[in-house]
Design goal:
AB_hydrolase_fold; hydrolase activity; hydrolase; alpha/beta; about 325 residues; Hydrolase_4; Rossmann fold; MAG_DAG_Lipase
Amino acid sequence: MQHETFTFQDADHQLIYVHHWSPPRRRPPKAVVQIAHGMAEAARRYARFAQALIRAGYEVYANDHRGHGLTAGSLERLGNTGINGFNRMTDAMAQLTDVIRARHPDIPIYLLGHSMGSFLAQQYMYRYPDKVSGIMLSGTAGRQSPKLWFGIVLAQLIAAIHGNEHRSPLLMNLTFGSYNKAFRPTRTDADWLSRDKAEVDRYIADPYCGSTVFTAGFFRDFFRGLHEIHRRNHLKQIPKQLPVYIFAGNKDPVGGMGEGVRRLVEMYRKLGMKHVSCKLYPGGRHEMLNEINREEVIADIIAWLELFQPPLLGPN
């Protein structure tokens, strides 16, 4: 497997770093998979998944979002996504899609978003409805509870008083503090990510993962984004023929132990979307690509990709 990194500038002239994995001998791929990683992680964590996709005939691109990975610029800048960060991260994903399209004309592109990346991908679905051939959502959820409004108001208040770049342990705890409770007695603060202890330890040891306290500005924009992506007028802009595959563990607290995932599937189907499928893995936690049954998960993803290769689908 070959690996390269390159950069492009986003609308604010921020350098966005991209990881590209390809087979050792270049040949036209069946399709390209673009990955949008989650909060408090980095694109390079998807190298193992990329290798499996390459063996199946695909190529893989994944950018580090603002405030993450190499794009952050330094460890001290992790967790600071700048002004309007949620929307800007989605915009950068669309720019990367255009870069991929220029490199691979006439080859299908599929977008996989995990966790925060899955919510960015949900926004991508209506803001950039014609750019990709399908969407995969991992570790995701549907419409948030009314408590989200409290989070929006609190984050706005903290940002107004202390500034956008203020690091907020309170907002971090409100967002993640309860996730580990279902797995007591716990070995680490990240047990909710996976049943695979080695993967949890690898996450904790990675300086680009987990330990960063994100800014008040990030949370304000993130919470607003979580509200915006499920507005009726936005959802109606999603193409009805767009294939969507949602997968998660039924013990993932981000997805409400499966309930939030089911609500999302139901919401899309009520919109009249024709190709929405879902798989909940018993006992699986938040990072199904790093779970003890990850080979099964990856095989299911590849099977879905094979099923929804154009031109099998009709017009939107």
